[in-house]
Amino acid sequence: MTTAAYRDDANKIVILNPKGGCGKTTLATNLASYFALRGPPPTLIDTDPIGYTTRWLERRPPDRAEIIGISIDELAPRRGWPFNRPRESGAVIIDTPAALRQREIAELTHDADCILIPILPSAFDVQATAQFIARLLQLTDFERPVAVVANRTRQNTRSLAVLLQILHGFETPTIAVLRDSQNYVHAAERGLGIYELPYHRVKHDIEAMEPIVDWLDQLLVKTLQPGLMSRFNPLPKMLSSSST
What we know:
Layout: E1 5-6, E2 12-15, H1 24-38, E3 43-46, H2 52-59, E4 68-70, H3 72-75, E5 92-95, H4 102-108, E6 114-119, H5 123-139, E7 146-153, H6 158-167, E8 174-179, H7 182-189, H8 199-220, E9 221-222, H9 229-232, H10 235-242
Parallel strand pairs: 2-5, 2-6, 3-4, 3-5, 6-7, 7-8
Antiparallel strand pairs: 1-9
């Protein structure tokens, strides 16, 4: 896994898909958990009125690595977008609602460094997402890196094989395939990410998430200065949290 220092001016990650139930919140919260362990504290912004991400943060134990949470109610006084990130914060991860209008998509992706699109292995989801990606690329003038994450998949199934075959023809890369794992559910119930569960239970899920982190690092990386490797390597903190 790439270990790298984050640039303060390049770390806005938008999790986007107008299709509901595709795992945007799961991806957003687990990335936030990872970056919290790596440091500095990430900012997790919940723009969904339903507030699943906000409730996840409310369940998060106070002794865990810090995540700065901002709910949709808190965004209104800040006069919306573009959003100014807190000082000395790390990655800014934005969880978005379903059924967004074009204007809302434009606002949420303003000045984004990258966009992640989770997709489920169903014919309807693939068709809807393909059409959305085409509109998104035009809306952002092809200037924002966009990647697809296949979510809640089951190995050795026809649905996964068909999904990967279709995704291979997309204009955007498919950077990871996440399995349909109860570990995400168990972690979410406690306000945690899979990186904060015992490693022997989540080894395969962490391995599946690694390509996402590596892809983000390639986009957001700054030349690593000597002596910073241990600061940005989350493994010691992961192993520490896994033993609790």
